[in-house]
Design goal:
The protein has 364 residues and is of the alpha/beta class. It has helices spanning 7-13, 30-40, 85-101, 131-142, 174-183, 199-209, 253-264, 283-297, 324-335, 340-345, 355-363; strands at 21-25, 47-51, 57-61, 69-73, 106-110, 146-150, 167-171, 190-193, 212-220, 228-234, 242-249, 270-277, 301-306, 318-321. It has a seven-stranded mixed sheet, sandwiched between helices. Strands 1-4-5-6-7 form a five-stranded parallel sheet, sandwiched between helices. α2 (30-40) packs across α9, α3 packs parallel to α4 (131-142) and α7 runs parallel beside α8. It is globular.
């Protein structure tokens, strides 16, 4: 039970006005946060991470954020950073608490990839934790009043937050990413879901693109981690260009099985799109083998992943969808107590095809 006059009560009472906007970032998310700050014309506030020899860390805010509307960016998956997912998440907790103790009016954690999202239920096993709920409670206790994420694995995770204390804003990429792919000739005329659980997401993309919808039924080998035995196609893809949509690609086992099934049933060109290109080993090798096979056989293979996970030195078949314009629009709407839906459905800055991409579009 909350005390009368406690911080969440005060925040709820103050939502009728716009508080000063403050953008902060943990070190792993700094490139993304700098892009958002540049779009908004706002400075990235001075902060500092400190890691001690024993492995402990702390987060310091070096400017006044009292009574401000604070947004803290963190990338829990960061291939170029040697620290673990858990190190980065705990640093986010330090940052959130630092802002709360600095008397910020609102503290929003901007975490495009929500860690633990696949651990959202027990799946018949009774002696394991539900990490998605654990992380939600930790963010609440640290002082977050809102968490912004992108295409979360299971939208039911929103119910793991106490809405009187902290709310989850799940931002959908469907409209903006579908149009981005279409303008670059990557969308095709058929949308495929890699498994039964992804059919609803694929249905939205198919509606956005006015495309045919097909699905794949995935059979896993649960005796081994991250292994897909086979995918069975539901629908017709003969002679069609297919866009395979998923929320994330980790080791790419599902993608390989899905592409094999689509090609076996006569699909022509294939684009794989995802919100979160985690691409753990051996994903790059697996996808590279498909790209080489496509080159030798004369069909197009491309992977589109958002910048929620930032990779360097990407191969030519990999396209990065910039999410900074979308997140900037979301931050603006939240700061002005506006509609996140309107930000999702707008045509943002990322839709323009820059000069350096036009040659790639023509080749694709």
């Amino acid at each position: 039970m909350l005390r009368q006059g406690s911080r969440p009560d005060r925040i709820m009472a103050e939502t009728d006005r716009t508080a000063p906007l403050h953008l902060l970032s943990c070190s792993a998310a700094r490139p993304l946060a700098e892009q958002v700050a540049r779009i908004l014309g706002q400075p990235l506030r001075s902060t500092r991470e400190a890691w001690f020899a024993c492995g402990e860390g702390k987060f310091l805010i070096e400017e006044n954020v009292r009574r401000g509307d604070v947004y803290i960016f963190q990338s829990c998956i960061a291939p170029s950073d040697s620290r673990s997912v858990y190190d980065r998440f705990v640093m986010l907790l330090h940052a959130v608490e630092a802002a709360a103790l600095s008397d910020a009016s609102d503290v929003t954690a901007v975490v495009p990839y929500y860690p633990g999202a696949r651990q959202d239920k027990r799946k018949g096993r009774v002696r394991e934790g539900i990490s998605a709920g654990l992380f939600a409670r930790m963010l609440q206790e640290a002082g977050a009043t809102r968490v912004v994420t992108v295409d979360i694995h299971n939208e039911a995770i929103a119910g793991m937050f106490d809405p009187a204390r902290c709310r989850l804003e799940n931002v959908h990429l469907t409209h903006r990413l579908a149009r981005w792919c279409a303008r670059r000739g990557l969308a095709g005329n058929t949308v495929a879901a890699p498994d039964v659980g992804g059919m609803e997401r694929a249905r939205h993309y198919a509606a956005e693109l006015d495309a045919r919808l097909v699905g794949l039924s995935k059979e896993r080998d649960y005796s081994t981690e991250n292994r897909v035995l086979r995918s069975t196609l539901i629908g017709d893809v003969e002679g069609r260009d297919v866009m395979l949509v998923d929320d994330m690609i980790d080791t790419a086992g599902s993608v390989v099985a899905a592409v094999d099934a689509l090609k076996a049933h006569g699909a022509r060109n294939i684009t794989v799109t995802c919100a979160h290109p985690i691409l753990s080993d051996p994903a790059w090798a697996r996808l590279g083998e498909i790209a080489e096979r496509a080159r030798q056989q004369g069909w197009r293979f491309a992977v589109v992943g958002s910048a929620s996970v930032q990779h360097v030195h990407m191969p030519g078949w990999f396209w990065t969808y910039p999410i900074a314009p979308l997140l900037a629009d979301v931050v603006t709407q939240l700061n002005h107590r506006g509609s996140v839906t309107s930000a999702q459905e707008a045509d943002g800055l990322e839709q323009e095809v820059p000069e350096h991409e036009r040659h790639r579009c023509e080749e694709s």
